[in-house]
Amino acid sequence: MNISIIGTGYVGLVTGACFAESGNNVVCMDIDKEKINKLKKGIIPIYEPGLDEIVRKNLNTGRLKFTTDLEYAVRNSEIIFLCLPTPPGKDGDADLGILFSVVKNIAKILRGLAKDEKKQLKKLIVSKSTVPVGTADKIKEMLNKELGKYSDKIDLYVASNPEFLKEGNAVQDFMFPDRVVIGVNDGEAEKILRELYEPFVRTGAPILVMDTRSAEMVKYTANAFLAMRISFMNEMANLCEKLGADVEKVRIAIGYDNRIGPRFLFPGVGWGGSCFPKDIKALMKMGEKNGVELKIVKSVYEVNERQKKLIVEKIKKHFGRELKNKKIAIWGLSFKPKTDDMREAPSNVIINELLKLGAKISAFDPVAVPNAKKIFGDKVKFAKNQYEALKNADALVLITEWQEFREPDFNYIKTLMRTPVVFDGRNIYNPEKLKKLGFTYYGIGKG
Ligand code: UDX
């Protein structure tokens, strides 16, 4: 099939590369010339395991192309995927400005094509961006309005196809999805999308077909539910701490209940990233606008805001109120391992709070340092490796559980630090072992 991807950000690039990998001809479009020029040479703008390999392979075979020309992309494709950003607006609502302006431009291009072309055209426009419920209907309305009398010359379909990609595992998630959700309001769009996704569901994953509004709602519900599990466990962790219980034991035990399951129950320094915070804000707004008070969703958000600061409270309590002349080593800056993404990363809040208290920060992350430098500039000292960050440090704060931080040489660490204190923000270390080695250990929810 001939596919175009409008918006070659994180979701667009993964989607385009994976569709090319499954044998389609894909044109990825973006207005960012520098990004497109780099991609044409096989240089990937983000860190995502496995992505560079399939981009380069499909560039070489010619199945994957990059362009800044929207008209070229729209003209040469039967399926047009919208993978555009929908950032939170001033009031938390998803800002659809970019999406709608692109839809308008696409409509103008389609109008031009319909005018010149003798034969009947067929185009399927698929929204992959996370958008408020009802957006697919609005897109269809806008397109028809703009096409006017030419709408009869195009068989035009609009579908919603939310993505469930996890950063750091996106290629794998796309290639082997748990399920594919397709929102359509007609049989033809369903037929095309079923055929397109067939190679990805050979493992037996279902393709779930529903109306566009339900499909749009699936994405918000899934993300809010996952965030709820984490916020809930963070709340339980805080109580465990006061009551002398160990949240890790509680987590494992409840995870064996088939109705609960073991995943997304890990307490920590709070959730972040490009999806959860933005989607939860947008969901709250949707509730507000429609007169439905989403009490749980609101609490999920508030608990998380508080959680990001709790580790700072522990540090403050350990050292007394002031942190002047204290050197704090930070391990891990990205919002989770295997990504360089700093968006809404708990490290932003934690580091800023520590700086406010007068601490000196020395940080290390395996890949996120260039992005972190853009945020902190020279307010933070960035170390060349994880051990260098610890030289003369008064405490180590583990924020992101990268694999390379899991089994460090604690005997060596003790020789590097001024005082051997560990704040383990992800419960990855064994408290007993550390205490035996002479460390003071603080975890999350370990009473
Ligand atoms: C999420 C969804 O999982 C994905 O389906 C959607 O498409 C986009 O949003 P992502 O933001 O890449 O993906 O990260 P995810 O792995 O879901 O983690 C989100 C946050 O929750 C991270 O900050 C992570 O550290 C935190 N987390 C996750 C926990 O604190 N505890 C857990 O048990 C799991």
TrEMBL record:
Report the EC code(s) recorded for this entry.
1.1.1.22
* The keyword rRNA processing belongs to this UniProt entry's keyword annotation: no
Q: Which UniProt keywords are listed?
A: NAD, Oxidoreductase
Instruction: Give an example GO biological process.
Output: UDP-glucuronate biosynthetic process
Keyword NAD recorded:
yes
InterPro entries noted in UniProt: 6-PGluconate_DH-like_C_sf (IPR008927), NAD(P)-bd_dom_sf (IPR036291), UDP-Glc/GDP-Man (IPR017476), UDP-Glc/GDP-Man_DH_C (IPR014027), UDP-Glc/GDP-Man_DH_C_sf (IPR036220), UDP-Glc/GDP-Man_DH_dimer (IPR014026), UDP-Glc/GDP-Man_DH_N (IPR001732), UDPglc_DH_bac (IPR028357)
Where NAD(+) is bound, by residue? D30, K35, T86, T130, E167, K278, R343
Amino-acid positions noted as binding substrate in the UniProt annotation, renumbered to this chain: F164, L165, K166, E167, K219, F264, L265, F266, P267, G268, G272, K336
Show the SMART domains listed in the entry: UDPG_MGDP_dh_C (SM00984)
Pfam family of this protein, just one? Answer: UDPG_MGDP_dh_N
List the SUPFAM superfamilies hit by this protein, alphabetically.
6-phosphogluconate dehydrogenase C-terminal domain-like, NAD(P)-binding Rossmann-fold domains, UDP-glucose/GDP-mannose dehydrogenase C-terminal domain
Q: In which pathway does it act?
A: Nucleotide-sugar biosynthesis; UDP-alpha-D-glucuronate biosynthesis; UDP-alpha-D-glucuronate from UDP-alpha-D-glucose: step 1/1
Active-site residues per Swiss-Prot or TrEMBL entry: C275
Q: Which family does it belong to?
A: Belongs to the UDP-glucose/GDP-mannose dehydrogenase family.
What protein is this chain from?
UDP-glucose 6-dehydrogenase
